[in-house]
Amino acid sequence: MWKKGSSEGSDRFEYLQTLVTEFQDTDSDEAKEQVLANLANFAYDPKNIEYLKELQVTDLFLDMLTEETDNFVEFAMGGLCNLSMDPECRHLILESRGISLVTNCLSSRREETVLSAITTLMNLTTPSSRSEITDPAVLQCMLRFSLSESPRLRSLAAVFLQDCCTQEQVARAEQQMQGQQTAVGIPLPKS
To answer: What is the block-wise mean pLDDT of the chain (191 residues), using blocks of 10 residues?
Structure first.
C-alpha cells in the first residue's frame, strides 16, 4: 500500500491501475502490447512492486505466457522476470504453476524471451522448487543453450547450470544426451 498523504504513491498507483484497466478493456493487440511493455518496465522498479501485487499484475503476466502473440509472451516474461525477485511475487508464481509456464518459454524463437525465462527460473529456485526447476529436460535444454552461438544465451545457461544444479545432475543430463541430437534450438517437449 502507498503511504497516506503521499501524492506520488497515489499517482503511481492510479497510473498503474489505469494501465491494467486499459489492458483489460481494449480490443487492440497493439495497445495491449504497449501496456504489457509498460507494465514489464514498471515491474523493474521496486517502488512499484506493492502496487503491481495489489493490481494482480503477476497473474496477468502469467496468463499472457500462453498467448500466441510473441510480443505478449516476451513482455510478460520480462515482467515476470522482474517481479520474480520479490519474495511474495516468487511465491505467487510458484503457487500458480508458474514453473511449467516459464519452462515452456525456453522453446521460444525469441532470445529475449528465453533469457528472461532462464533468469526467472533462477529467481524461482528455492529448496522446494529446485527439483522441478532442475528437471532433466530443463537441464538438457540448458546444456544445448550452453553451446549456443549467442554469448548471452551461452553464458546465462552456464550460470544456471553452475548455480542451480549439482555437478551430478549436470553429468547425468550430459550422459542422457549422448547419442541424442544436440543442436541448439530444439524445443522442450510439451508436458
So the answer is: 56 95 96 96 95 97 96 97 96 95 96 98 97 95 95 97 95 84 49 37
Contact 136, 172 (CB under 8 A): yes
Which residue type is seen at 103? T
Q: What is the pTM of this model?
A: 0.88
Q: How far apart are CA 28 and CA 59, in angstroms?
A: 20
Rounded to whole angstroms, the maximal C-alpha distance in the chain is 65
